Amino acid sequence: MSQHEQQPLDFDVVVVGAGPVGENVADRAHKAGLTVAIVEKHLVGGECSFYACSPSKALLRPIHATRASQRVQGSEGARLDPQGVLARRDAWINRLDDSGQVGWLDHVGITLLRGEGVLTGPRALEVDGRPVTARHAVVLATGTTPTVPPVPGLREAKPWTNREATTSRRIPDRLAVLGGGVVACELAQVYAALGSTVTVVEQAPGLLGRNEEFAGTAVKEALERDGVDVRVGTAAESVSRLGPTGEVTVHLEGGGTVVADELLVAVGRTPATKGLGVESVSGRLTDAGYVSVNARMEVEGVEGDRPWLYAVGDVNGIALLTHMGKYQARACGDLVGARAAGREPDADRTTPWADDLGAPQVVFTDPEVAAAGLTEAEAREHGLRIRVVDLPMDSAAGSGLQAEGYQGQARIVVDEDAGVLVGATFVGQDVAELVHAATVAIVGKVPLATLWHAVPSYPTMSEIWLRLLEEYGL
């Protein structure tokens, strides 16, 4: 019997992609009593676990802890150990061994299919040529891959992406970074702290362009204090490399060069939809190549008597953040489970409507940038009548206890007609834990008059909430 004549493997649900998003939707569907297979061609745990969120934060945390100690009188003696930092990173990614995640799948009863999944028809796939069918649903959770732009010579220079930068066991003497977003800023700070001479090249006029402008300014100043050469408003015209592993030269538009031992490209992400077969079942892709979905994560354009194809996480392009993808996955898994059981789905539980409110996010640089909801510019683009309130973070008594000479800024964006918060941004040491309160207020549409009664504990940095509301006039 040839490979294509094999009897198909049959499951209730097949999930393509075993990153955190795929794992979440598979787990949710399995808990609904369905048989589930998950398809993965690389590591179970995906980009976030091995090449992005986990290793980058494992690298950054010792830097944060050391600097936090140095900023408190009486404990200024902390020093960074580069090899210890790398060892901690290795432990967090289990040295690129996914046996722990595979063991979890086995334990809960989800079947792992190793290989590349391709849609071949309604509720049908092939995994490395082996036919697989799904009685109820196929869920796409293939995520994204690093974008390498078509700069002459760039691909030939074999640059680092986030994968190489978060897993390297070598600290280059000189590192050039193309890009000015989250990955570029975080990893530039990591390598500068570990001993590299770092140059950042960003064609936009500032860093962290999707955040409030003051956040990008604060991170740029911090990188420069770390010795990073930050060049904004500058683009790479071409790239060349001496031999397979020699030095890399980035030729800049308008003249000038940056010479480094390694080049990190961190200019965005590309949806992992090539060869997935979405169009073969009439599914739609956006102009940027993301899978087009409706509010319930159903792939648009797919024909059939009932929905069966879904896409969650980065692959649909709604919010390229692991936590938002997992949120979509939980809703999708519950939806698939309800439909399979013949129940009317709970609309509130199976529609991830908070996507439209602005995703919470933390940039784990020093200072941290924590934001939720809309920026001032986005709120104005939405046509809202807003008021913006800004305060220095040292308005909260707790900030001075956190660090001597604490530096930072807070902003809230208020919808004046609704009397609710629609955006918040905090910049400073240890502000990451402030963002969830903002998220709750925004998603819950908590009136500011009610929020005033949410009394912050003294003396904590959360007191900034009280000061912001007082500045607003409450």
TrEMBL record:
What range(s) does the FAD/NAD(P)-binding domain occupy? 11-321
Record has Flavoprotein as a keyword: yes
Q: List required co-factors.
A: FAD
Domain named Pyridine nucleotide-disulphide oxidoreductase dimerisation: residues: 360-465
The organism's place on the tree of life at top rank = Bacteria
TM spans, by residue?
none
Signal peptide (residue range): none
Gene3D superfamilies to which the protein is assigned, alphabetical: 3.30.390.30, FAD/NAD(P)-binding domain
Keywords noted in UniProt? FAD, Flavoprotein, NAD
Keyword Nucleus (UniProt): no
Name of this chain's protein: NAD(P)/FAD-dependent oxidoreductase
Q: Which organism is it from?
A: Pedococcus ginsenosidimutans
